[in-house]
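Figure 6 in text form: structure in, sequence out.
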């Protein structure tokens, strides 16, 4: 009787280990690689989206009135001064940006800064490794 219980405990433990290894191996598949947002931005509002490192990013940012888009590096996640040396790419005072870029292995963000008029802005992108 004790031998059967030990056998079941051992079998249960092995199944838990196998399940844990399987989940860890597939964890990359659970990470978000797409983002879609459509929302109202007040005048001068900022929105930042983390870009997956080492990826090919495609997508767009669209609105009726001018806005600006920046690809920036930031360790702190602080974006009030997006015109400083941390800017990798920039599109200023535009109504549409089509994204097609490769991100480095560092931390990079897509930052959208609305212009002087409150408006709805659509941000959509996907990232492939």
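Output sequence:
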């Amino acid at each position: 009787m004790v031998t059967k219980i030990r056998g079941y405990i051992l079998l249960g433990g092995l199944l838990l280990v196998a399940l844990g290894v399987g989940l860890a191996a597939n964890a990359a598949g659970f990470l978000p690689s797409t983002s879609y947002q459509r929302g109202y931005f007040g005048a001068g509002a900022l929105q930042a989206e983390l870009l997956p490192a080492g990826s090919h990013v495609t997508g767009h940012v669209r609105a009726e009135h001018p806005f600006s888009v920046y690809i920036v590096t930031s360790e702190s996640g602080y974006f009030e001064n997006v015109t400083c040396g941390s800017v990798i790419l920039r599109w200023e005072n535009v109504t549409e940006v089509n994204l097609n870029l490769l991100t480095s292995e560092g931390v990079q963000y897509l930052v959208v800064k609305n212009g002087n008029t409150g408006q709805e802005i659509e941000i959509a992108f996907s990232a492939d490794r």
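Caption detail: The chain has one domain: 34-128.
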